[in-house]
Design a protein that fits this description.
alpha/beta, FAD/NAD(P)-binding domain, eight-stranded mixed β-sheet, 21 strands, binds arabino-flavin-adenine dinucleotide, binds P-hydroxybenzoic acid
């Protein structure tokens, strides 16, 4: 057994863990990342595509915005296609100039991993048998790496290990409450090196089911289809995918759709999930380890970022100002923003997807709700301000960073 020691042990090298590591590094706070997968596997994962302005600001604060500024696509609006009609939501006009940025989570992860490598920071990839211990008193982590058993003593553990991670699972059942809703459909996602069908994202509500036309760049498109729970990705040839997407689009989009071979194709479940609280003594859960949203509101990655804004600020305040205020408020502050994003993601999913079990009346009511939103400045404003991202309740972030 080799004994190690650090201030903060970060479990998981996804966006949450990597971003926390980068912000702690910039503040001069010692930490180690422990990840069960290989660095290659982590860097290749294809997931989210939309960054809120506050997430862009945080990545800038972390000093990893070079590629984001060069390749990210700022978007002022999105479109909602319903009953064959497209409605543009002018996000910027409705939110005093705010935007979202199209920049893949894959790229965010690669940028953070590159920054970590450049700084020569300590990460254990392909760690096996990761376990967390005594996080109420004197926390430590045990794991195997390259046939060597390690014991890592630390002040705090950041559980950034995603929905299936070990950290939340290590909390005694009587200390934790979870809230969950599983949706009766999934998203079939396709990535293809073809130009996007439109300059902006199109959220499609159709009688055949939801579809989303997104992108990663002006030459790489990302499309999603709502599919039944029973579907398997092997049942969806490229030809079948493009044919079904066309049936859900309007004439104009069908004409401008450019098809091509998929370079990635996968089916993901949709769920809403929240853990309360998000702090257990010296263990902090962040990102998907604490909550999951259906991707309809483009909030998953952005919620991971906001948790890390609160957690990094709290840890920096603890080490550099000898204050536990941020730590003590972490869970309450995160959950206030998490639940608002959960509500918005549930609402967008409810509004735009076809639910087989809904009655004709429910379907008409939902159509009337969407028509009200699209015809009302107040309705459009509520959609826009949630989509671009609600503000963090945080001391001016760089005040914290300037402590370092
Ligand atoms: P992550 O799951 O990204 O990272 C957790 C890390 O912890 C992983 O690298 C994992 O290997 C590691 N880990 C797990 N157990 C461990 C253990 N015991 N020991 C050590 N390491 C361990 N969000 C959107 O906004 N839009 C989308 O379109 C979208 N699509 C998605 C599609 C899929 C298939 C999935 C699963 C998620 C999607 N999301 C989407 C949500 C996604 O982007 C997450 O919100 C984001 O990855 C959260 O980042 P992390 O919290 O870092 O968790
Ligand atoms: C994506 O591009 O992957 C994406 C965009 C918006 C969403 C979900 C996913 O709401």
């Amino acid at each position: 057994m080799e004994n190690l020691k650090t201030k903060v042990a970060i479990i998981g090298s996804g966006p949450a863990g990597l971003l926390l590591g980068q912000l702690l590094y910039k503040a001069g706070i010692d930490h180690i990342i422990i990840e069960q997968r290989s660095a290659e596997y982590v860097a290749a994962r294809i997931r989210a595509g939309i960054l809120e302005q506050v997430s862009v600001d945080l990545l800038t604060q972390a000093g990893v915005d070079q590629n984001l500024n060069k390749f990210g696509l700022p978007h002022d609006g999105i479109e909602i296609l319903s009953n064959g009609l497209k409605h543009r939501i002018d996000l910027s006009a409705l939110t005093q100039g705010k935007q979202v940025t199209v920049y893949g989570q894959t790229e965010v992860t690669k940028d953070l991993m590159q920054a970590r490598e450049n700084a020569g920071l300590c990460s254990y990839y392909e760690a096996e048998g990761v376990q967390i211990h005594d996080f109420d008193s004197n926390p430590y982590v045990t794991f195997n790496h390259n046939h060597q058993q390690y014991r890592l003593a630390c002040d705090f553990i950041a559980g950034c290990d995603g929905y299936h991670g070990v950290c939340r699972a290590s909390v005694p059942q009587d200390k934790i409450k979870t809230f969950e809703k599983v949706y009766p459909f999934r998203w079939l996602g396709v990535l293809a090196d073809v130009p996007p069908v439109s300059d902006e994202l199109i959220y499609v509500q159709s009688e055949r089911g939801f579809a989303l036309c997104s992108m990663r760049s002006k030459t790489r498109s990302r499309y999603y289809l709502q599919v039944p729970l029973t579907d398997h990705v092997d049942e969806w040839s490229d030809e079948r995918f493009w044919g079904e997407l066309e049936k859900r689009l309007d004439d104009e989009s069908r004409k401008s759709l450019i098809k091509g071979s998929s370079i990635e194709k996968s089916i993901a479940p949709l769920r809403s999930f929240v853990t309360e609280p998000m702090r257990f003594g010296k263990l902090f859960l962040a990102g998907d380890a604490a909550h999951i949203v259906p991707p309809t509101g483009a909030k998953g990655l952005n919620l991971a970022a906001s948790d890390i804004a609160y957690l990094s600020s709290a840890l920096i305040e603890f080490y550099l100002k000898d204050s536990t205020e941020g730590i003590d408020q972490y869970s309450e502050k995160c959950l206030k923003r998490v639940w608002k994003a959960e509500r918005f993601s549930w609402w967008m999913t409810h509004l735009l997807h076809r639910f087989e079990t809904e009655s004709d009346f429910d379907h008409k009511i939902k159509q009337a709700e969407l028509n009200y939103i699209l015809d009302s400045k107040a309705g459009l404003t509520t959609l826009a301000e949630n989509y671009v991202g609600l503000p963090y309740e945080l001391k001016k972030f760089d005040d914290m960073q300037n402590l370092s």
